[in-house]
Write the C-alpha cells for this entry.
Amino acid sequence: MVEKAYKFRFYPNPEQGSLLRRTLGCVRLIYKKALAARTQAWYEQKERVSYKQTSTMLTCWKKQEDLDFLSEVSIVTLQQILRHLQTGLSNFFTGRAKYPNFKKKRNGGSAEFTKSAFKLFDGQVYLAKSSQALPIRWSRQLPKGCSATTITVMLDPSNRWSVSLRFNDPRDLKLEPLKKRVGVDVGISSLIATSDGTKVNNPKYFNQLYKKLRLAQKSLSKKTKGSKNYHKARFKVARIHGKIKDSRLDYTHKLTTQLIRENQTILVEDLAVKNMVKNHKLARAISDANWGELVRQLEYKAQWYGRELIKIDRYFPSSKRCSECGYVVDKLPLDIREWDCPECAAHHDRDINASINILRMGPPGARKTQGNALQEGCRAGSVSLWSDCKT
C-alpha cells in the first residue's frame, strides 16, 4: 500500500472564500500563540510545553471574548496545526530542522481537515462549517476503492486556491523489470547527463522570466507599503514566481518519470544541495536546476514502480576521474567542459564521463571501499582494479 496525494485547483464562491480565509487566519493565529507560549516557557522556565498543554490552551483561548471568532471555524484545523507545531519542534530538538518561524499572511497558508471534518460524497468534497461542495476542477479521479484520509486546503501567495487529497493506494504499480542500468550526473549547463551518452538540456525557467520579474519587483519597490497598489504589485510578482515554480516542477516530474520507466537501476550522486547553495555565485543556478527535488522524486517513484535508486558517495571524484584508465586529475575547474586524460590521452566530455564513473561505482555498500581502492591503485600507476570494475 502506497500513500499518495492528488492536488487540484478550485475556485470558491464568495461565501466559501470568506470562510476559508477566516479559517486560515485562525490557524495562523493559533500557531503564533502556541509557538510564542512554548518559546516563552523554554526561555523563562526551561520547560518544554507538550501538545496536550497547547490543546488545553486552545480550549481556554476559545472561551475568551476577544477570541470568540475561533468557534466560527472547524476545531479540527486548529488542533492539526498544533500537531504540526509539535512535529516541527521535535525535529528541531533532534537536529533535523531549524526552529519554527511565525507564519506570515502574505505567504497564504494551509488548513488540514481530517476525516471527521469533511465528507467525500458522490465525487464532491464538503468541508466542515460549509454546506456547499468545493468547486474543484477534477483533472483526475481517485483510484477505485480509495478514500481520502485527510484534505488540505492551500492558498498560495499569488491568491490561487488548491486542495490536496491524501489517500492510501492499494494498487500494485510495479513495472515490468528491465536489465538497463544508468548513471546520472546532474549539472547546470545540462540538467542531467546519462552514462549512455544522453544529455538533457536545462530549461532555466528563472532566466526565461527574469526580465519580467525584475520589472515587476522594481514596480513593487516604488509602491507605498500597505496600499492597494502595493498589494496588486505584490500579487503580480507572486504570479511570476508561481509560473516559474509550476513550470520547473512539471518538467522535473516528466523527466523523472521517463528515467524511472526506461531504467531498472539508477545511480546518482548524494549531493548536499543545502550546502552547495551557500555559494552565492552558483546559488540561483543550482536552485533553478531543482536537483534536490529531482532526486527526491526519483526516490519515491522508484519505490512505487519497483525500480532501484542508488546514491553514491558525494566525495567520489566522478568528474576528475578518467572513465577509461581511472586516472584522477588534481584540478578540473567548472569552466572546463571537455578534457584529455594525461595518462591514456582519452578525450572526455565532463558530464558524460562523470555519469559513466557514477554507473561503475556499483552498490552503495561497496562504494566507499571500492572508490578508495580505485583511487589508490590509479595513483600508484596500477589500473587492474579499474579494469575489473569496467568488466
Observations:
- The radius of gyration is 26 Å.
- Confidence is low (pLDDT under 50) at residues 364-391.
- The chain has three domains: 2-169, 181-312, 316-391.
- The first helix runs from residue 14 to 45.
